């Protein structure tokens, strides 16, 4: 049985001239245990969706991790308690920060649903290959 978890967190979008709060919806499905989703809700009807490996967040919470379009790292300033996510695409790039406690809670919820290292027990590779090749 597929289980899903979602949370909506307040992120801060860091720009060259301004900062403003941004609502981001994180998602995770037990039948896709290697990935998580992040949907940026920039305004009415303005949604930007990203899907990336959940390990990026699980590892990036503690040290800089990722290459290419998604990179995650903890802020090293004393007392900051922030985690950064940098997103890049053909249309541009942005950096988001969120509270480290929120990230820790989200990572715990994902690993409670699908423990790290047991992803293969929740993923039907044969079915995914069948769908891909159909």
Q: Give the averaged pLDDT, no decimals.
A: 83
Query: Could you tell me the radius of gyration in angstroms?
Result: 16 Å
Whole-Å distance between the termini? 23 Å
Largest beta-sheet details: 7 strands, antiparallel
Which term fits the overall shape? globular
Structural class category: alpha+beta
Low-confidence stretches: none
Describe it.
The chain is of the alpha+beta class and 134 residues long. It is 22% helix and 45% strand. It contains three helices and seven strands; from the N terminus they run E-E-E-E-H-E-E-E-H-H. The chain has helices at residues 54-60, 100-113, 125-133; strands spanning 4-14, 19-29, 35-43, 46-53, 70-74, 82-89, 92-99. It has a seven-stranded antiparallel beta sheet with strand order 4-3-2-1-7-6-5. Strand 2 (19-29) and strand 3 (35-43) form a beta hairpin. The longest helix has 14 residues, at 100-113. It is globular and about 45 Å long. The mean pLDDT is 83.
Summarize the structure.
The chain has 134 residues and is α+β, with helices and mostly antiparallel strands.
Provide the fold topology:
Elements: E1 4-14, E2 19-29, E3 35-43, E4 46-53, H1 54-60, E5 70-74, E6 82-89, E7 92-99, H2 100-113, H3 125-133
Antiparallel strand pairs: 1-2, 1-7, 2-3, 3-4, 5-6, 6-7
Q: Which labels suit this protein?
A:
7 strands; alpha+beta; 134 residues; single chain; 3 helices
């Amino acid at each position: 049985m597929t289980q899903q978890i979602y949370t909506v967190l307040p992120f801060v979008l860091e720009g060259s001239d301004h900062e403003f709060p941004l609502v981001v919806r994180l998602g995770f499905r037990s039948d896709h245990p290697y990935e998580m989703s992040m949907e940026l809700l920039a305004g009415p009807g303005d949604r930007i969706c990203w899907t990336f490996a959940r390990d990026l967040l699980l590892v990036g919470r503690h040290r800089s991790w990722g290459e290419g379009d998604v990179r995650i790292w903890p802020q090293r300033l004393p007392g900051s308690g922030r985690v950064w996510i940098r997103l890049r695409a053909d249309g541009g790039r942005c950096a988001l920060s969120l509270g480290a406690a929120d990230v820790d809670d989200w990572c715990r919820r994902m690993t409670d649903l699908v423990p790290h290292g047991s992803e293969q027990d929740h993923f039907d590779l044969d079915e995914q290959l069948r769908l891909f090749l159909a």
